[in-house]
Amino acid sequence: MRQPKPQSAPAAKKGVFREIRDWTLTLSIAIAGSLLIQNYAIAQTEVQNVSMQGTLYEGQRLVEDKLSYRFNAPDRGDIVIINGPEYERRLVKRLIGLPGDVIDIQAGRLYINGELQEEPYVKGSTYAGSVSLPYTVPEGHVFVMGDNREHSIDSRELGPIALSSLEGRAIFRLWPLGVFGQLD
Fold first, then answer.
1. Active-site residue list
2. Which of 61, 50, 53, 87 is nearest to 171 (CA)?
3. Where is the Peptidase S26 domain (predicted)?
4. What's the rounded Cα separation, in Å, for the pair 105 and 114?
């Protein structure tokens, strides 16, 4: 059996430096890739208030899809993450009205374009807030409300939300494990 030749000290040092360089490059690429994914594709967010109670609760962790609104228009009923000048903190709300929709509230019930909306996820009654009804959602904006209608700061107080303020759509609940799964 042939014995490998022992390496000289300079050659061994060169091998160690090459190994360190390779590991550093690999870790740098992995970190940069994960940061890009978190900033532009998929992120994790936390529910920080009670406005979505009934569907989501304070402290729950969600997976946010940041890509879909770059390629597709939002849909009525989406649970959206808002990060814009309308409010100083990120908000999690349900998208109720699209551009051009007429929003009306009568006897604690929501009407969109004259049709009564069945909203089994809503907690409490729906009131108008400070918005004059009926309200037409302007172009380039959406109308959002929390599912816990009596305890929500939303478009009834803030006004319409610019489409550019929609950071993403909540698609999955990560935590707590007892409610782990896809959001409806």
1. 51, 93
2. 61
3. 21-175
4. 10
